[in-house]
Amino acid sequence: MKRTHRHGPGRRLARCLLTLATAALLMVPAAAAQAHDVLETTDPANGSTVRTVPAKIGLTFDHTPIALGSVVRVEDATGVDQADGPVTIVDNHVSQAVKADAPDGKYKVIWRVVSSDGHPIEGTFTFTADAASTASATPSASPAPGGNSTGLQTGLLTAGVVGIVLVITLVMAGIYVKRRLTIREP
What we know:
alpha+beta; five-stranded antiparallel β-sheet; 2 domains; four-stranded mixed β-sheet; Immunoglobulin-like
């Protein structure tokens, strides 16, 4: 009579799956540590009112972005881009010159840069240029609107993908074990 080892293959598979699960969980913090650059401040500040349209728009990141493919649009209330010339990146500061004859009004700045990790990141902020404003101008640089959560989103996305792969692996392993045990039964 042929002797079957009901627990042998199952135990080996369980140890293998435990090792895979541990490796997957150890990769999550490493993936989060490789997060994209974070926008720290904008100049002018998000939502601020300034007396005149600034000569340049500034963005400050926690690391130095890559210049390749960087774009900063400075759209006036009619949607016309008032940016003048190419984006300049010096250290962790990104700047975009603005046309000298840009009209007063509400502006939307739409930016896209390549993070130092090689992945593109993007965002927007607004400001208003109002020469008639009697209120004092808001300080020119302030924290980015709500911070840039791209790095956190990337870490969560990576953790989610690892979790999904882990669940799929466990389900497939369960199906494999069940089939192996079913085949070996007399």
